[in-house]
Amino acid sequence: MLFMVIEGFRDKQCDDAGQTGAAEARRWLGGVRLDIVCAGDLLLTGGGLLIVMTAMKGFVEAERDKDGLLGVHSVDHFGLVVPDLKAAEHFYSASGIDPVAIGDHLELRASISDHAWGKVTEGKRKHVNYLSFGAYAEDIPRFREHLKKVAVETITPPADMAGDGIWFLDHDGRPVEIKAAAKVSSDGKRQPRAGTAEARAVPLIPAPEVKPVRLAHLILFTQHIDRAIDFYTRVLGLRLSDRCGQTICFLHGVHGSDHHIIGFGHSDGPGLHHTSWEVDGVDAIGLGAKQMAGKGYCEGWGLGRHGAGSNYFHYIRDPWKSLLELTCDADYIPKGTTWCAADLDMAQAVMQWGPAPPADFGANYELQS
């Protein structure tokens, strides 16, 4: 029998069939259908799982507690340098992302707002040249003091970066900004577009253009998984969701976010593995992959479902051998949740089901440029 402890459920009274607690348990178990009955502080399942419900005591929401948790709430945007801006414009347009030309760079916008999720400029080699994280305005003075306490020196903002953000270097020497910004990470598990009895769930002809709704996360390469976890949790206030030993790690925000808003995979040097973009359901992932293949971008991997994060995926290679992921239905970690990070088997984390990944899925092609 598998044993699991879930905090925060004891105060939720079970009805006669135990369905109130069962619903909470199913949320934690990713919606798995189990026969569940309530027995006091226990949920007993027909799947051989014993769940102990305990109470979280004394929790105060971070943004309402000036002396409490401190953490960024979102990846506001990323900076990306590529050798050919026209090629980038064509690639991102094919994915349904809107690459808007602003001066000498492209702003990557999704369908639900004019927010710039990425800023792409032209340079000799492809690389992520900075990361910008959003925090609540009232936390910015606290972050300035916090950086002093953890002995992280601030730097002059990179050229053409205006504003009052706090800039410093991460464990790999990459410029990082924390700035006052609206929360753009998810505030809950996004539901796919609802179908109706009077219409087809997916129109047959013409197929709708797939347009991502937001940046879900990005995965970067690093030589030091433990140092990445230490820096981004200790300095930026993120939390570890899961890891696979020294191979990969996934981090979430304390103010409520998807299972990961950033992660790090092991390599012999820094680089970008992939950016991930949320779309409206599994059909949109499949249609998006078809849409990109029709415009010449066929190399990739999918359709499948990850173990770490539980999200559906399809990956497409960009012109510089990084990947763009179309995704949906990731695990959501609400603010105030005590999430038990696991050290997962790599095969389990990478895929619950789907085709075998290509041999070079984990390759860092930036080391060859």
Please characterize this protein's 3D structure.
This protein is 16% helix and 33% strand. The N terminus is likely disordered. Strand 18 and strand 19 form a beta hairpin. It is globular and about 60 Å long. The protein folds into 3 domains: 53 residues, no CATH class; 117 residues, 2,3-Dihydroxybiphenyl 1,2-Dioxygenase, domain 1, CATH 3.10.180.10; 155 residues, 2,3-Dihydroxybiphenyl 1,2-Dioxygenase, domain 1. By secondary structure, it is an alpha/beta fold. The protein is built from 6 helices and 22 strands.
Blueprint (SSEs and pairs):
Elements: E1 2-7, H1 19-28, E2 36-39, E3 42-45, E4 49-54, E5 74-82, H2 85-95, E6 98-102, E7 105-109, E8 116-122, E9 127-135, H3 140-149, E10 166-169, E11 175-180, E12 214-222, H4 225-234, E13 239-244, E14 248-252, E15 257-258, E16 262-266, E17 271-278, H5 282-293, E18 300-305, E19 312-317, E20 323-328, E21 332-333, E22 342-343, H6 346-350
